[in-house]
Amino acid sequence: MTDTSLEIVHSSEPILTLMNENFDFENSSLLKAVLTVESEITGLNISKFEDSLRLQQLVISSKLANFDHANKEKLLALLDILYQQQGYEGDWKAFFKVKNALISRVFARRKGIPISLGILLLDFLQLCDFDVQGICFPSGFLIHITLEDEVVYLDPFTGELASWELLELRVRGQLGNHAKLTLDMVKPDSHETIVKRFLNVLKAAYIQAENIEVALLCSDILLRLDPDDAYEVRDRGFLFQQLDCLSLARDDFEFFMKQHPKDPIVHILQKQIEEMNFDNQVMH
């Protein structure tokens, strides 16, 4: 497959580590990985953000200084600090907005969506010595917490611990009444998988905001992580099409059709190509 990666440099910012298939997820925190993505997309100064974050970490640590162990009592105290005292909350009114996905904006506003709140919360929990992992759950991001004598699941959107019965109801609401909650659904995910989920959410938010150029950058980063993801190539083709980059869109559609010739969407892509007016396309 031909590499059509976008080359974007923020001239006012130092050159930062880019997210790609060689990124060291194993030795990088999830938060640092996501901030690496955000720095490329928005020009975020990671060092300045981390300075602000450390101030809040100090506040949290001081308030929990009396707890010797990372037990359920300490967990509930931490959640009270974050969700009651500091006002973190899920933003029900503007769920699919860019400001609810970008970590820096969520940190500043104390509002966000499950995955953005969850990534921040994972960092706070790890600071307080909890054994935690993220889960790309069907109905929204969850946090897996291993306590002394039990495993609990935290919903970062509400700041509440979710029972197995509640999770099963959410699965049915997302996947249909006949869906069943399985252990695989609550299996922790790797940092790379979570970063990909974050990028897809961010891409969707930029598409809704009609900022197709930045949505295309999100797609480009996803393809750096997995260059042969034919479905992401197809989606990038739709973004190229919206930008009237029709030759690039055609190339992406044809790549997908070659990889998945029996996919139901193939006939739609063929029709899209037939209807393209290459005389009026944006040239690259």
UniProtKB/TrEMBL annotation:
Residues 55-200 form the Protein SirB1 N-terminal domain. Coiled coil: none annotated. InterPro entries: SirB1_N, TPR-like_helical_dom_sf. It holds the Pfam family Transglut_core2. Belongs to the UPF0162 family. This is Protein SirB1 N-terminal domain-containing protein. It comes from Psychromonas marina.
